[in-house]
Amino acid sequence: MKPIDLFVDEVYQNVGGNKKEIEELKAEMKSHLLEAVHELKSEGKSEKEAINIAIERFGGEKEMRSVVGQLFKIQKTFAKWMLYVALTFLLISFIGYGSFVYLENTQQREAYQFSEQIINSLGNTITEQNKTDIREIVESYENITGVTVSAVEVRDYGNDSEHVSRKHEEPDFSFREKPIFNFFLNYRSDGMINDNWEVMVESKSYALTGYLLLNLSVCVYWVLFTIWAIINAYHHRRLNAGWGIVFALLNVVGYLIYVLMGKRKVSI
């Protein structure tokens, strides 16, 4: 029926989206309208009356065009934001992990500097002034949590072979702040040894936090990108269980395969 065809064409005029999907939706709308027209005609209405009533029941051309346009706009916007959020989490994972790696390396350098400072200040014995200085270092730096100093003896076996061992089972001096339990925080020890002393500086470690942030952000990105890829495949009318598994397992590589397969079909 030409009036039905014209109405449907007007409704979907200037609607952006996948052409195949639009044609399928137009065919579905025509089918519903024709079914309504046949029912009205069976009730005694003329064809013209039946067509007008069926179209009015659908909401009219302007209203339907607005509804269809909004529907496609919402679909596009949702998919677009899904991709943006996924990429944001991926960016956060790399920036966050890089920041924690930088912080961890900075902590290590500081620990070596403090251990060098302490070991150079020691003579043959640990004086009370040495102990006071060590306590001040630990208390004045937020990330330094403790220091242990142990007397050592070095045995030279020749051929550049040396053996270093502690003179006493327990450290000669140890000072450590009371640790605060934190699931995301670990502690690390760095230090140095000379002919008389071993100095180990304990500091906060952010490696675990970095790994957790990286893994969590990548997982969120992976899930969101997979959902975005599935939505796109659905809009292209190419979604099936196989593509869903490919997207879930291979992520962006799987989507590139999907795109290349689609181009290959078009060229054939």
From TrEMBL:
Keywords: Membrane, Transmembrane, Transmembrane helix. The chain crosses the membrane at residues 81-103, 210-231, 243-261. InterPro entries: Perm_prefix_1 (IPR047928). NCBIfam families: perm_prefix_1 (NF038403). This is Uncharacterized protein.
